């Protein structure tokens, strides 16, 4: 293990100690008001500035706290490659959410749900992008700021954007940046990024299911993965909706994605959540087998992302008046 990876593993172990334990999870699910959630968040390193917080204030505290932990981790990699890798993948996720929110016309606050601020897409920038009225306006502002994602959004500036093509263009940009950083980091980071690219390709193929049997165009396939080929994506995209559950295990057999498939495959939205949960659990197992490589750091990153999703759902469960058992089900597995 290199000195750089040694420092990262030690720092990830320290940050992991602040992740939610079962007692913390249970306490948040029992909460009946925002003040209780704010106190629980405060004991776990999420500072809530508002003395009388509402749901958006709590969600902002969660985003700020998680974003700060990402930055802390990245600072322990002296070459800054880890930061480039992490921030590229998070910015891709954030921009996808902001663009889809703009296309759907959802309120600005709702567009920010679950986004993590990064040095390359800080909170104030995310908030400004969330207030813009259209996908074209977001694309134009990113171009003015010379964002590395601006070229991917060039077609959107003309209006009437194809959101699927935009998703793929964002993923292609982020994947290229992350792969370049992973090559510099060495260790298991390249496998982590390749897995992310494979999952992006799988998401695209699933989004094309049921669209008249169209094949997956080569222009929508992301290079850099290793488990899912263009041929495999094309087979999934061309399948009838009722054939997908049976087809996926065959297409992904003997690949690194096969263990991530749940025993029962539901609708695409449920499948994406299941894949994320099983991916996190798989990296936790790798971290136990290889405690001195990249796996412990990746495991922490995926656990942090899962914690943000859980906390967000806990907050909005209280906002909607859902009883604790229903909030526990909505929050997903620990």
Key descriptive features of the protein:
334 residues; mainly alpha
Summarize the structure in words.
By secondary structure, the protein is an all-alpha fold. Helix content is 64%, strand content 0%. It contains 15 helices and no strands. It has helices at residues 3-16, 22-30, 34-43, 55-74, 81-104, 108-111, 123-130, 135-144, 163-185, 189-208, 230-238, 244-251, 268-289, 295-319, 324-331. Helix 4 runs antiparallel to helix 5 (81-104), helix 4 packs antiparallel against helix 14 and helix 9 (163-185) packs antiparallel against helix 10 (189-208). The longest helix has 25 residues, at 295-319.
Secondary structure layout:
Blueprint: H1 3-16, H2 22-30, H3 34-43, H4 55-74, H5 81-104, H6 108-111, H7 123-130, H8 135-144, H9 163-185, H10 189-208, H11 230-238, H12 244-251, H13 268-289, H14 295-319, H15 324-331
What is this entry, summarized?
This protein has about 325 residues and is mostly helical. The protein has 15 helices and no strands.
| Class inferred from helices and paired strands | mainly alpha
Number-wise, the strands total 0
Poorly predicted parts: none
Radius of gyration: 20 Å
Q: Kindly, what is the distance between the CA atoms of the first and last residues, rounded to a whole number of angstroms?
A: 30 Å
Shape: globular
Instruction: Please give the count of helices.
Output: 15
Biggest beta sheet summary: none
Task: Name the helix and strand elements from N-terminus to C-terminus, one letter apiece.
Answer: HHHHHHHHHHHHHHH
Helix fraction by DSSP (H/I, runs of at least 4) = 55-70%
Average predicted local confidence, pLDDT: 88
- The percent range for strand residues is under 5%
